[in-house]
């Protein structure tokens, strides 16, 4: 998919399409009397339209089959702040926290089908979507990763002397003939060290200013449109917030060129190749906001564990999970094979810099407003897919 005059227009149009598809499919499955017309974007191919439809059906299944926790996510967040359990690896604090906020089961519950995780008041705190991405998009992601392979290996060498486990060589595995181990951070906009929150410090990350970084953004456009559409469904308010941040940042010439080509609604991404991941919390992002993790590659097992929810995603190739990486301790076991993780997130500092009002939790009530009273009448959903 070639980059148009502004990639924001493309993924915004496709996300609107997926959002409407979701409402139509949810209405159909719940017997609502709502009528929904679905118009496919002109730039969308038949193949991509059908892939989007299948992904939307998985999202509907996840919404209709929630896993419930017995506690209040707001109280959990308050306790995380009070006890200073909000980033890094703090095993003792996590254990004490879990006693007050018990998981679904004593042992990890393995989730093999699409699920949401919901707190006691109906707030949706996670989406778990095993194997949701079709093979074509997985191959496209792999091709995009190959474009940045030389930079990824370089980044690992440059980080080998740091104390962080994230770039420690012992966390990575070299697999002959596959993508080199390493990680790369992409930011549509960020601040130079010592100039946080200042206009004269606003920059894009170095990788997006390279030729291979530009190619990655262009070739990732289809996947970017899909995950943007997924976020618009999973958390519409976060999508609107991200869109407002992007449009305001585009007024700054320092990052405008990058933002014109940036392929998705998330303003930052990290690509990680062949790394295991101990239980931890991320230091970026914000508690109510969803990050989105894509797992692809030639591997068999790499389970993703989520505390204190007490669930484990098999994390087979093509799986997507979405939750607050800062809000929940999570980790991925060593993969049997070559695994690549793409982590997408929104930097809270950019939201503050652009004076965009923060969003709150996504709730089940939002979807109930979409489908209305199920007892009102017969199914009258108009799902016009014949013209796609």
From TrEMBL:
| Keyword field contains Zinc | no
Q: Keywords on this record?
A: Dioxygenase, Iron, Metal-binding, Oxidoreductase
Electron transport listed as a keyword: no
Which cofactor does this sequence's record say it needs? Fe(2+)
Q: Coiled-coil regions in this chain?
A: none
Q: What Gene3D superfamilies does this protein map onto?
A: 3.60.130.30
**What GO molecular functions are on record for this protein?**
dioxygenase activity; metal ion binding
Name of protein:
2OGFeDO JBP1/TET oxygenase domain-containing protein
For this UniProt entry, which segments traverse the membrane? none
Give residue ranges for domain 2OGFeDO JBP1/TET oxygenase: 219-347
Cross-referenced InterPro entries, in alphabetical order?
A: 2OGFeDO_JBP1/TET_oxygenase_dom
């Amino acid at each position: 998919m070639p980059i148009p005059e502004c990639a924001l227009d493309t993924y915004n149009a496709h996300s609107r399409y997926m959002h409407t598809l979701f409402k139509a499919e949810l209405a159909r499955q719940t017997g609502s009397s709502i009528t929904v017309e679905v118009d496919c974007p002109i730039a969308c191919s038949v193949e991509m339209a059908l892939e989007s439809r299948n992904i939307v059906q998985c999202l509907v299944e996840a919404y209709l089959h929630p896993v419930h926790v017995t506690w209040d996510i707001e109280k959990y967040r308050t306790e995380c702040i009070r006890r200073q359990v909000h980033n890094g690896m703090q095993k003792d604090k996590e254990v004490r926290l879990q006693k007050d906020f018990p998981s679904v089961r004593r042992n990890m519950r393995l989730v093999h089908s699409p699920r949401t995780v919901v707190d006691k008041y109906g707030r949706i705190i996670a989406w778990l979507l095993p194997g949701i991405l079709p093979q074509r998009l997985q191959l496209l992601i792999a091709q995009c990763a190959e474009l940045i392979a030389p930079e990824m290996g370089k980044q690992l060498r440059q980080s080998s002397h740091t104390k962080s486990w994230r770039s420690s060589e012992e966390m990575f595995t070299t697999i002959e003939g596959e993508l080199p181990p390493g990680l790369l951070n992409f930011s549509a906009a960020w601040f130079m060290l010592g100039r946080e929150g200042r206009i004269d410090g606003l920059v894009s990350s170095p990788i997006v200013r390279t030729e291979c970084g530009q190619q990655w953004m262009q070739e990732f456009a289809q996947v970017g449109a899909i995950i943007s559409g997924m976020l618009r469904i999973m958390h519409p308010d976060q999508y609107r917030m991200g869109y407002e941040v992007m449009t305001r940042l585009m007024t700054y010439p320092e990052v405008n060129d990058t933002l014109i080509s940036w392929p998705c609604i998330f303003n930052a991404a990290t690509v990680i190749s062949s790394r295991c991941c101990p239980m931890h919390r991320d230091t970026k992002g914000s508690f109510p906001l969803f990050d989105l993790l894509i797992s692809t590659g030639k591997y068999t097992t790499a389970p993703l564990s989520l505390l204190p929810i007490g669930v484990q995603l098999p994390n087979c190739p093509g799986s997507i999970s979405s939750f607050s990486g800062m809000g929940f301790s999570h980790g991925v076991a060593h993969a049997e094979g070559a695994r690549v993780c793409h982590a997408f997130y929104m930097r809270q500092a950019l939201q503050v810099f652009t004076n965009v009002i923060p969003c709150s939790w996504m709730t089940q009530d939002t979807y109930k407003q979409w489908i209305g009273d199920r007892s009102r009448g017969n199914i009258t959903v108009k799902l016009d897919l014949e013209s796609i």
